[in-house]
Design a protein that fits this description.
With about 100 residues, this protein is an alpha+beta fold. The protein has one domain: 2-Layer Sandwich (Alpha-Beta Plaits), CATH 3.30.70. About 35% of the residues lie in helices and about 35% in strands. Strands 2-3-1-4 form a four-stranded antiparallel sheet. Helix 1 packs antiparallel against helix 3. The longest helix is centred in the N-terminal third of the chain and has 18 residues. Keywords: Monooxygenase, Oxidoreductase. GO terms for molecular function: monooxygenase activity. This is Antibiotic biosynthesis monooxygenase.
């Protein structure tokens, strides 16, 4: 049985001087995405304890189409435009899910 889920890890480096502003945009975007988009199954953001400007986001979407719809939403566009000068590096890594479990 094929699984249509799209899983990605976003590896983001943020200008340390703008980290608080970046986190405000990120928090707003994730909350809106999970609340308003049924195709957004999971967005988990974490920071490296030793380098808090190194952010990783585990993204799980119901399908590629759900992801494509997500990046066209007003809240995602606000995040991308608002943080464009804050992000110093971005790497998007598509993943094959092995097991996704949560309580």
């Amino acid at each position: 049985m094929a699984d249509d889920k799209m899983v990605r890890v976003a590896e983001i480096e943020v200008d340390p001087a703008q980290l608080d502003a970046y986190l405000a945009f990120l928090t707003e975007e994730i909350a809106a995405s999970v609340e308003r988009e049924p195709g957004v199954l999971m967005l988990h953001a974490v920071a490296d304890k030793a380098a808090p400007q190194s952010i990783r986001i585990l993204e799980v979407y119901a399908s590629r189409a759900a992801y494509e719809a997500h990046i066209e939403t007003p809240h995602f566009r606000k995040y991308k435009e608002g943080t464009a000068d804050m992000v110093t590096a971005l790497r998007l890594v598509d993943m094959d899910p092995i097991i996704l479990a949560a309580r």
